Amino acid sequence: MGKSDTEEVAKDKLRLMKCKFNPLSRCDGSVMYSQGATVVIAAVMGPIEVKTQSLSIECSYLECNYRPKAGLPQVKERIREAAIRDVLELALLSEIYPRSKMSVQIQELEDRGSIDACALNAACLSMLIGGLPLKYSFAAVHCIINEEGEFIVDPELSETVHQQASFTFAFDSVDGNLLLVQTKGSFKIAQFNDIECICRAASADIFAFYRSNIGKYHGRSDDVLSVTSKEATMEM
Amino acid sequence: MSSALNIVMPGERITAVEDVAKGKRIILGPGLRRVNDTVVASKAGPLKHREPNTFWVDNYQRRYVPARGDLIIGIIKAKSGDVYRVDIGSADSASISYLAFEAATKKNRPDLNPGDLLYARVLNASPDIEPELVCVNSNGKRGKLGLLQDGFFFKCSLNLGRLLLRENCPALKALTEKLPYEIAVGVNGRIWVKAHSAAETVGLANAILSLEQAGHSEIDKVCDNLGDVLQA
């Protein structure tokens, strides 16, 4: 990569993450989450009453809805919704509340790149704050190969225009196993492996972000705050 | 209760609990589960410990999950056969028998209508069956349970409900100094209050809800200001 040091740092770091818990009052847990200029609201309800047709006596039923910024969900949104649902289903401990439904709603507010990863991270945060039982938390990272063959983690929308390939990975917090892989475009297997390693490293920052924000929400002390400010400067 | 702030995340193995478990039996509360020989968290929040052997995760939660013996506030939804259907904020609606009230017989039924508030105890709760409530203790006396008349009802997080129910709750003590009132707090995150006038009742409700925004460390400060909230 023939780039100066400062630009390289920007390319393999995530954009600044921010979150606000419980902006909505009527659901069981909600979060407004942003990565750079990409903003998403996610809300969860659960366990709640389930329709008899989707009732299961062994585990809870998971419902996931993704709404675009404007208009009705189309095929693109449905695909994203299905991908999110698959990951949530892996993470949720569904056997704890049989005969019930867990409902996750995700509303896109602004898509300025990496919306898939952002929506997944928002869904994870909302499940953490909504008190849903989970096997592990998860973090998703988006990465692209641009026309010069450089890797850019968590790209802006403008950076993705002439991309060669794009990747979205989701990792669990316990073993770091892959929960989701989405790829598009042409790439070599070595590049794929490199990007997986870069994304895995970046997911650690997201897990640290989850922990510090949950800690902060529980009205906790200065040491938690100092951690976040340190992170914030790191992100900058 | 330990005061150390120890945030755990889902999937995290909690070796501190496992160490205690080597010496004696332990009780795992909400948010903790046993996986083979390890103790793993399933919810995100501060890990709490009460001597001698109880551990749980005190996560933020708004949705109530019934547990036997809980005191809750329910809303009557319908009469059906020998039972009333009661909404207690959980996934399933609960049921309460006509005979689960003081001095109730088959002839002498309690006069309850949809919309009435009930302060009741959870008699049995299991994930597989709908919860059942009672309004009497084992001697057939009602105690403090039963219909809540007049007053004002609102919902809050489960954490706030538990905070108010703690022994020597500083918030209720601070409010008691300002005005006389009646309060019923359900662990299902529902609160009923009643003071002499409507204005006082609403002020009281606002004062209690202002605690919702406060973190644990600020509780004392907010309690000092509760009087001001009441005036407003």
Write the layout of secondary structure elements.
The complex is a heterodimer of chains A (236) and B (232).
Chain A: H1 5-11, E1 17-21, E2 29-35, E3 38-48, E4 61-67, H2 75-91, E5 101-110, H3 115-129, E6 138-145, E7 151-153, E8 165-172, E9 178-185, H4 189-217, H5 222-235
Chain B: E1 7-8, H1 15-23, E2 27-28, E3 32-35, E4 38-41, E5 45-50, E6 54-57, E7 71-80, E8 83-87, E9 94-97, E10 117-126, E11 129-134, E12 146-148, E13 152-155, H2 158-165, H3 170-176, E14 181-186, E15 190-195, H4 198-213, H5 219-231
Parallel strand pairs in B: 2-6, 9-11
Antiparallel strand pairs in B: 1-5, 3-4, 5-6, 7-8, 7-10, 8-9, 10-11, 10-12, 13-15, 14-15
Helix pairs in contact in B: 3-5, 4-5
Short description:
The complex is a heterodimer of chains A (236) and B (232). With 236 residues, chain A is of the alpha+beta class. Helix content of chain A is 35%, strand content 28%.
Q: What distinguishing features does this structure have?
A:
heterodimer, A: 236 residues, alpha+beta, five-stranded mixed beta sheet, four-stranded antiparallel beta sheet, globular, disordered C terminus, B: 232 residues, OB fold (Dihydrolipoamide Acetyltransferase, E2P), Ribosomal Protein S8, Chain: A, domain 1, 3 domains, 5 helices, 33% strand, flat, RNase_PH (chain A)
